[in-house]
Structure formats: structure tokens, C-alpha cells
Specification:
- By secondary structure, the protein is of the alpha+beta class.
- It has two domains: 3-84; 184-338, Heat Shock Protein 90.
- It is 59% helix and 13% strand.
- It is built from ten helices and seven strands.
- The strands form two sheets. Strands 2-4-5-7-6 form a five-stranded mixed beta sheet, with helices on one face. Strands 1-3 form a two-stranded antiparallel sheet.
């Protein structure tokens, strides 16, 4: 900051000083104070004001010069350190800038973490989707002696896996823009569950899994598309960890506070220490790592979508006995806050 700029910043103080000098001069003139005294008073006021402005400028100049130098040298930097303030006004400004800088830094750190997670997911997804593609190519190259029906059946399995991977990537990419793409209405949950089971009919039949479903109509308020994906993930999770001849049971309950959809399987269960982390991104757990197709994303997405819909998702399990996933539908919910 130049001296002229500093004087401009003090223009209101100097204007007030001029008004005071004029007032004092008028009083002395009307009171016959004498021209000499009038000159001395005005000269003294002027010299004091000049001294105040000059000393103040050199005192403040270090702060302004240091700030200007840092801005010029670190124009592209996001974390330019601020000089130490010299008075109350500067302290207030510096405190505000540091507070804003901290908020921006926190936000930037969060965005960087989200970008890393996104990149990690993309890399993981690429490896996942390459497996059924490679398997399909091997089937086409080496399946010449295989019966046509068996070949088609196996290719359909691999295509279904690719379709599931693509659908998962689609929902993962849209989860941040969820509020632009949902419509809450009354959803026939019993019908939605039946459709989800029908889509997975082949693994149910292949593994000879016994199915139990309620017969009564059951309605909840939700978005049918997103809720269907949540149910699909719960069904897929049960099928993945339930052995041949096992059972998958659906139940629908209601009380004064909420409605519930329960999906219970007789699979391998979850070890107690893994239960708190079941819905974490990418978490597969001790038992899940034994399954090559476990990515840890299905239940994570189901949980996130349930929360965004105003629902919730919980889990109960006993290792080696059962796993029960529950979707909670609170009866009092303001969907305008989603």
C-alpha cells in the first residue's frame, strides 16, 4: 500500500479534522482570539494530523506490504499464510479469512477424498466387469463341445453379472444427485418383492433355496425405482451367502412408529465384530472375503439410498445360523427435507 492510498483510506478522519479546525477557527475569530493564535492553533492541528498519518502509515506498512508480497508470490497457492495483525480491525479480518480458509480446506479435503474413493471404485469396477467378459470369451472359445443349451445358460449367467455391475455403477454415479430424481408415492411393497424374486428366479432354482413370502398386500411411501434397487440388493445378498437347500424368508410388519420389511436367510451369517461395519463402503468382512464376487458395495448403496429416501436399514445376524436385514419405513417423515 502506497502512502497516497493510505491517506485516501484516512480521508474521513482528515475531513473530520478539517471540520474541527474550521469550527475552532470560527470560535476564536468570533471571540477575538487574534490572528496569531488562530494561525498557531491551525498549524498545530495540521502538524499533529500529519504526524499521526505518517507514523500510522509506517506502522501499518509492514502488514500491508507483507500481505501484498505473499499474494503476489503465492498467487496460485490455496493456503497462503496471513501476516500477523497489528490492531483490532486487522485481527477481525484475519480471523474471518482464516475461518473461511479452514472451511474451504475442509471442503477441498472432502472433495479430494471423494475423488479418491470414486477412482478406487472405478478401478475396482473395471476389474469386476472384466471377469464375466473374460469368462464369456473363454466359453465361446472352448465351448464348442458343450451342448448349446448349456453354453447359452452359462453365457446368460455372465451377461446377468455384467448387467448387475453396470446397474451398480449407474446407481453409484447418481447417488449424489438423488434429490433431482425421486418421486415419493404409495408403493405396493408385496408386488415389488415378488418382482425382485422373479428377477432372481434362476439362482433360487439352481441352489434349491426355499422361499417364504407374505401373501397380504402391504403398502409403503417411497420411490418405487430406488426402493426396488434396495430390495434387489437385499435379495442378492441373501442368495450370495445362502448355500444349497437353504431358506430365504420375507416378512412385513407394522407398529405405531413404522413399517418394516425383513429379509432373513439361513446363510453363513456375520461374525459379531463385523456387524457394525456391514454397511461401510467396500467392506466384505471375514466371511465375505471367502466369496470372490463380494465387493462390499451392494449393502453400502442400499443403506445410502434408504437414508436418502427417509428410511433406514439395519442388520441382525448369528454366525453360522442366519442374517436378517430390515428396511425401516418411519410413518412420520418430511420428504421435502431430502
Amino acid at each position: 500500500m502506497s502512502f497516497v492510498e493510505y491517506v485516501k483510506d484516512k480521508r474521513y478522519f482528515l475531513l473530520l479534522l478539517v471540520v474541527v479546525m474550521l469550527f475552532v477557527s470560527a470560535v476564536m475569530f468570533l471571540g477575538n482570539g487574534g490572528a496569531g493564535n488562530l494561525l498557531y492553533v491551525n498549524a498545530g492541528c495540521f502538524l499533529l494530523a500529519a504526524a499521526y498519518v505518517t507514523v500510522g502509515y509506517y506502522y501499518r506498512r509492514t502488514f500491508y506490504e507483507e500481505l501484498r508480497e505473499r499474494l503476489e508470490n503465492d498467487a496460485e497457492a490455496l493456503d497462503v499464510p496471513l501476516p500477523e495483525p497489528q490492531n483490532g480491525g486487522q485481527r477481525l479480518i484475519v480471523a474471518f479469512l482464516r475461518s473461511r480458509d479452514k472451511r474451504f480446506s475442509d471442503r477441498l479435503g472432502k472433495l479430494r477424498e471423494e475423488k479418491r474413493d470414486h477412482q478406487d471404485y472405478i478401478m475396482s469396477w473395471i476389474h469386476e466387469v472384466k471377469l464375466p467378459i473374460a469368462a464369456s470369451r473363454l466359453l465361446l472359445e472352448n465351448g464348442t463341445e458343450m451342448p448349446v443349451d448349456d453354453l447359452i445358460d452359462k453365457l446368460e449367467d455372465e451377461l446377468a453379472q455384467i448387467e448387475n455391475d453396470v446397474e451398480q455403477a449407474l446407481y453409484y454415479s447418481r447417488i449424489d444427485s438423488f434429490s433431482k430424481d425421486y418421486f415419493i408415492t404409495e408403493v405396493p411393497l408385496h408386488t415389488l418383492v415378488k418382482e425382485s424374486v422373479k428377477k432372481s428366479a434362476k439362482p433360487f432354482i439352481t441352489k434349491r433355496i426355499r422361499l417364504t413370502m407374505p401373501v397380504d398386500a402391504f403398502y409403503v411411501h417411497s420411490d418405487s425405482k430406488w426402493l426396488a434397487y434396495i430390495v434387489d440388493q437385499l435379495v442378492a445378498n441373501s442368495l450370495k451367502y445362502t448355500g444349497e437347500g437353504g431358506t430365504v424368508a420375507f416378512a412385513m410388519e407394522e407398529d405405531d412408529r413404522e413399517k418394516r420389511l425383513l429379509v432373513r436367510d439361513s446363510g453363513i451369517g456375520i461374525v459379531p465384530e463385523d456387524l457394525p461395519r456391514v454397511f461401510d463402503k467396500g467392506f466384505t468382512g471375514a466371511n465375505g472375503r471367502a466369496y470372490a464376487k463380494s465387493t462390499g458395495m451392494g449393502l453400502y448403496l442400499a443403506k445410502q439410498l434408504a437414508l436418502k429416501l427417509g428410511h433406514d436399514l439395519s442388520v441382525r445376524s448369528v454366525e453360522g445360523s442366519f442374517t436378517e436385514l430390515t428396511v425401516h419405513f418411519p410413518k412420520l417423515r418430511n420428504y421435502y427435507r431430502l
